[in-house]
Design goal:
By secondary structure, the chain is of the alpha+beta class. It has nine helices and 39 strands. α1 packs across α2, α3 packs parallel to α5 and α6 packs across α7. It is flat. The termini are far apart. This is Baseplate J/gp47 family protein.
């Protein structure tokens, strides 16, 4: 254990006293130690300076804490903007990517994708159960309802049918609102293709249907599903284009419940772009045309650069015009290098703030510029500057500089800068740590700058958002996920949590914890059984073996894992087990119990209350172990109105159980008790009178 030294261990008076006590030994001829002596004055000055220095040396600053965290491999998490989905009707006009929305309080949002002019129109939602067809059109309105698209126990027969009166441009993308089940939450998925159930998507009449992307992971969480019908997708007899969802493999976990379905939801982030860089690849032509399909580029100021050879040059031979599809650009690219890489760079600046995004440099060490961000937070992951830079061959060329946390680890030629969110300033290096700026007018241009309110953008859902250009209101989901940059103290606490949690299996508790953390699963319980092999007749393993019993958080009273569930837990544990130890993941064995209780007294409904109490007791008893008749009798005695318990009898016909003379039942090592039947006999209470 390392002990921190206290460097601030002397006061001013103690320092002066200790120094004066040394004077007779250091300078015997100095005999006047009074305050009027000039030497004593200098000594007191040095004592004051020593006290000041030792106080500063004893401080553990956030800057020092961050450097120590880097040595441990921990970096502070960056700021994250909040995100939401906005609902647009088919009658609303199209929108470009980067379109701006705002709330009544002035919180800006930005569309992260374009809204096409022709969009699918969702007309009907039906659940087909055999020959029966139930219309679920209420999910398309404002009324919030929850329904099951696939009836329990009818996999393949119960289907969800979605009808469209018109199709949109390109692929079909739908948003599904999936209700999260109660109980154990689902672990985050590790791969896009991981699904807890198998659903067949069919565009009726088309040659085939390709699932391009499934963010819902088999309708296990809310998200988008993108489909592409193969060939022609014809309309049915009713004039609708039908999409059918059939449940081929229901899995072993929760049953799907939906509360909403939409074909007109688009993503938006709580951010505002002041500068953005567009990269293009152009042929060598005297007049080359391109379109920047972005709302910020359409309305902003442009700076165009063409790469000739190994350098970027700002071009003055270009023209542009705003159009509904974006910003049309025409420029001379006859000198652009043709090496297969991007050779045109277009920087678009916010038209109202472009003057504050260009700076004149003096070329001094540690030069600093002020950014008036109006209280917003800059997302430093994409923050870049385009600066006039002195290259190795002595030529001055525009080059991109990136934002870093500190300049200490960088050399004299590294093109980096730091950003101080408290002062809203950017600072460049001094020539030893970080390159120097080249002196010149307009030498620094902000190339990428996105701002956000972070946690301040987590707004509730409703109709508070409006488009900035035409003031059109739209409905939005609740924005979530916004978070400020992690502080040094929070990063330190995260490191301590990681150090206290191992990602390798050492003890039986590690096997159980890591099994419960299997990505993409809802694991209700896990029990590790060292030195136990269910394939051996005696159960005792001849090789180093750990058997893990995994129980899914499924529907019903006795959920059992399927092969996909067991294989996922097996892969998880195989990656963290010790070399030389084999792991077997097995399902539980449910032990059916019959409980007979004879008692005196008992209120009306005592049997129902007692059954609920016993089921709760058995659910918390875990896997394996011993069920004691005395514990069950205590539960019976605690039932409402029970005066005295005469007898409690536990019985089971399951294999592998042993019962002793006291009536206790020892369960198998994989056994989970389940109440099959409860019989309660209430004896009359004899009343005696005087």
């Amino acid at each position: 254990m390392l002990k921190a030294r206290n460097l601030d261990d002397q006061t001013y008076q103690e320092i002066v006293k200790a120094a004066e006590g040394r004077l007779p030994w250091l300078c015997p001829s100095w005999t006047d130690h009074n305050a009027h002596d000039p030497g004593i004055t200098i000594l007191e000055l040095m004592a004051w300076y020593k006290e000041l220095q030792q106080y500063q040396m004893n401080q553990f600053t956030d800057e020092l804490r961050c450097k120590l965290l880097k040595l441990a491999g921990v970096r502070r998490r960056p700021a994250v903007p909040a995100g939401c989905a906005v609902e647009l009707s088919p009658e609303d006009p199209p929108r470009l990517s980067g379109g701006r929305l705002t709330t009544r309080e002035g919180i800006p949002f930005t569309l992260t994708e374009a809204v096409p002019a022709r969009r699918p129109i969702l007309k009907r939602v039906c659940v087909a159960q055999g020959e029966r067809l139930v219309d679920m059109g209420e999910v398309l309105g404002d009324r919030h309802i929850t329904f099951q698209p696939f009836a329990p126990g009818e996999a393949g027969r119960s289907t969800l049918r979605v009808g469209f009166s018109a199709l949109g441009e390109g692929d079909l993308r739908l948003w599904f609102d999936v209700e999260a089940p109660e109980g154990v939450p689902r672990n985050p998925f590790a791969a896009p293709e991981q699904v807890p159930r198998v659903i067949r998507w069919v565009c009726q009449g088309a040659e085939g249907t390709q699932v391009l992307r499934d963010d819902t992971h088999g309708l296990s969480r809310s998200g988008y599903v993108t489909l592409r019908p193969q060939g022609t997708w014809p309309a049915g007899a009713d004039g609708l284009f039908w999409l059918t969802l059939a449940l081929e493999d229901p899995g072993c976990e929760e049953e799907v419940r939906l509360s909403g379905l939409s074909a007109g939801r688009y993503c938006a982030l709580q951010q505002e772009t002041w500068a953005r860089t567009h990269w293009l690849r152009a042929p060598a032509l005297p007049e080359w045309e391109a379109c920047l399909a972005d709302a910020q580029a359409r309305d902003g100021e442009l700076a165009v650069f063409v790469r000739t050879g190994d350098r970027w040059e700002q071009s003055g031979h270009w023209q542009s015009a705003a159009a509904p599809e974006g910003r049309l650009l025409r420029l001379d690219t006859s000198r652009a290098v043709q090496d297969g890489a991007d050779n045109v760079m277009v920087v678009s600046l916010d038209a109202f703030r472009c003057t504050g995004l260009i700076f004149d440099a003096k070329g001094l060490p540690g030069e600093t510029f002020f950014l008036n961000l109006e209280g917003r937070t800059a997302l430093t992951e994409s923050f870049t500057l385009l600066c006039e830079t002195l290259d190795r061959d002595g030529q001055v060329r525009p080059a991109l500089w990136r934002c870093v946390e500190d300049l200490y680890q960088y050399g004299p030629r590294d093109r980096v800068f730091t950003y101080d969110p408290a002062r809203e300033t950017i600072t460049f290096g001094d020539g030893a740590h970080g390159a120097l700026l080249r002196r010149g007018k307009g030498a620094v241009l902000v190339a990428e700058l996105t701002l956000s309110y972070c946690e301040g953008g987590n707004i509730p859902g409703g109709g508070d958002l409006r488009f900035a250009d035409d003031d059109l209101p739209v409905r939005n989901q609740a924005a979530s996920g916004g978070a400020a940059r992690e502080t040094a103290a929070q990063a330190q606490a995260r490191l301590l949590r990681e150090l206290n949690t191992t990602r390798k299996c050492v003890s039986a508790a590690d096997y159980e914890r890591l099994a419960r953390e299997t990505p993409g699963l809802r694991v209700a319980a896990a029990r590790a059984l060292p030195a136990y092999d269910p394939e051996e007749p005696t159960g005792v393993s001849r090789l180093p073996t750990v058997t893990v019993v995994a129980v899914p958080a499924g529907a019903g009273e006795c959920p059992l894992p399927d092969g996909r569930f067991l294989a996922a837990v097996q892969r998880q544990l195989d990656g963290v087990r010790p070399i030389g130890t084999q792991v077997r993941v097995v399902p539980p064995v449910y032990v059916e119990l019959t409980v007979e209780a004879t008692l005196w007294g008992g209120e009306e409904g005592v049997e129902e209350a007692l059954e609920a109490s016993l089921r709760n007791y058995l659910a918390r008893s875990g896997i394996g172990g011993t069920l004691r008749a005395g514990d069950v009798a205590a539960r019976v005695q605690a039932a409402p109105g029970v005066l005295r318990v005469r007898e409690v009898d536990l019985r089971t016909s399951s294999a592998g159980c042993y019962q002793n003379a006291e009536g206790d039942i020892r369960l198998p090592r994989r056994g989970i008790p389940h109440l099959k039947e409860l019989r309660v006999t209430c004896l009359p209470v004899e009343r005696t009178g005087r």
